[in-house]
Amino acid sequence: MISWIRELVNLNRGRVSSNDERTASSLLTTKMLALDFELTSLSIDSAHITSAGWVAGTGFRIEPHTSFYTTVRVSQSLEQSPVIHGLTDTALESGKPISSLMKQLYPLLGGHVLLCHHARLEVGLLCRLARQLQLAEITLVVVDTMQLAGYLLKKQGNTLSQDTLTLDNCRKRYKLPDAPMHNALTDAQACYELWLAQLSELGVKTNATVTALSHTGALSLKKIGKNAYK
């Protein structure tokens, strides 16, 4: 497993420059989509999605009616996933085919700012699947709450340890209620709640745009699709 601490080396990589209207939108009105995948492994090249969950919101408001969860049909070895995520063979057999899941999710990705905790995994899987399924090229605008947590802690002079940046520990620092882990939907909701707490700590101005987050290292853009580079 790649150390989460190592992933913060490029934390202050400068401002994101883009003509994408989502980066210029106000943090108060931009459409957000918190997304989580549960996987068979942490290898982007070989992992398979066993379940997916997401919830959308606008600015500082979560919209619970947009919540979605599904298991995903997997024919390959599940390794330890059923043990970790509590999934049964029956649940996985009745899950969506990955092509059906991507068909439902893909339009949302082009119209929202994507919110993930440890976004490397979700973005990596989306990139791989978009190429495999020959989907049209789109740009992901991504905010990583793990990277944002690292920025805020380093700004306070804190030393980061291996488990400092887990979703659970990040939430505990804001005294957010315990949330069941290893469920794609509850993890997505927990990520969105963490994001709102982080925004409060950042003290962003009411007219701040999404691009204002770029100095934290938490904002990134990634082209995905059949013609996109790895």
From TrEMBL:
Gene3D superfamilies for this protein: Ribonuclease H-like superfamily/Ribonuclease H
Gene Ontology biological process: DNA metabolic process
Domain Exonuclease per the UniProt entry, residue ranges: 31-204
Classification via CDD domains: DEDDh
Protein name: 3'-5' exonuclease
Superkingdom assignment: Bacteria
Annotated keywords: Exonuclease, Hydrolase, Nuclease
GO cellular component: cytosol
GO molecular function: 3'-5' exonuclease activity; nucleic acid binding
Coiled coil: none
InterPro entries documented for this protein: Ribonucl_H (IPR013520), RNaseH-like_sf (IPR012337), RNaseH_sf (IPR036397)
